[in-house]
């Protein structure tokens, strides 16, 4: 039993007995490091198991790519990060940062002070977070989790492999899964692709445009990565054709500002003479098909006897995208939602998890959580939302954040952050080429800066 940490004491009923648990956190990306902080603040004993030799996860850029560029070979060596060299954030730094650790440019002017900085700046921010909250001391680097399974007494056995190829089995009260979900490629289904002679790859293995010099490239997808990568490639390629299922079947449009880029509907078929036919009837002789078609949730280490499954990008059943009812609160998932602002969302999920593990907070009964999950699935189905969109929170992320905050007795998402996110989303739709460098939401920036002052001045106090 532990005393409640002073930062949360005011939210606690008097004399509540709190429990300190042994918790394994899998992964030291943006989700894992904030999980470690929140669990530590709540008084738990935390070990973060991280297969890389540093924190940062996705934000650790590497020029290395996988041996199978399309990512289908199960025996390939996995490269975790999907970042490309030119990547700048698609959120302004005010919105993107954790709620009480603002992502502000350094006073010295060093680094990348832009409002939508390059990826190195994000990694630096995460490392500074790690330093300021003592996370590095909690992480076991170069330690890959191979298996997580339930043992008697409702505890978890975690098997990991160290850098020296030592296998370690340990027992934990709880496991928090923070392994990320932008590593395992999802590929578009293209009739005839097996006889098509060109090169296929997934954006997971895209780093720089140079290999596409003078090539004819078909890029499939309409996500944030696709929007960036098609421009990157159009700078050097002979022709770029962007195929997307979100446009009408008759679409055939030149990309504004580019002489060598066109938009098409999805691919109808690929052929052994190298041609590719689009649904609008156009035919292109292409060198490369680049799948910017997203990623699959993947938990190769998790053994739940079928109690938690991944089916068509739905991880479930999960109460509020976090707890499998049958194992709650002893197994949890952080950061599964997409089309969100991930850092603050993960932070709030972790506060909720930490409080439920200590006994400061209470979950509904297993049956009630299951009913809630079923009702959620039924609602999605009734609204015609495909299963693969189960964790898409585009329309309600801030309601979800505020719900988590309320449950855990923390402040909700700031009004300026919500408004700024909406303003930037609109700018991004209207001007994908310019939104990172031109904006009008100066009043919101001022509000954010005012808010940040209290966190920045208290940073020294809140350390560790
Ligand atoms: P990750 O960052 O992927 O971290 C997971 C960690 O788990 C990794 O360190 C990995 O090594 C470790 N791990 C995995 N399996 C194991 C195992 N078996 N054993 C031990 N360790 C393991 N978000 C934004 O907020 N703004 C952006 O602009 C933005 N742009 C993006 C651009 C791209 C191309 C991508 C792919 C994502 C982008 N994101 C962006 C989302 C980004 O994924 C999140 O910001 C955040 O990094 C997710 O953190 P995470 O901890 O959930 O996962």
TrEMBL record:
Classification via SUPFAM superfamilies: FAD/NAD(P)-binding domain
Protein name as catalogued: Flavin-containing monooxygenase
Cofactor(s) required for function per UniProt: FAD
InterPro entries per the UniProt record, alphabetical: FAD/NAD-bd_sf, Flavin_mOase, Flavin_mOase-like, FMO-like
UniProt EC number: 1.-.-.-
Enzyme class: oxidoreductase
A Pfam entry, by short name: FMO-like
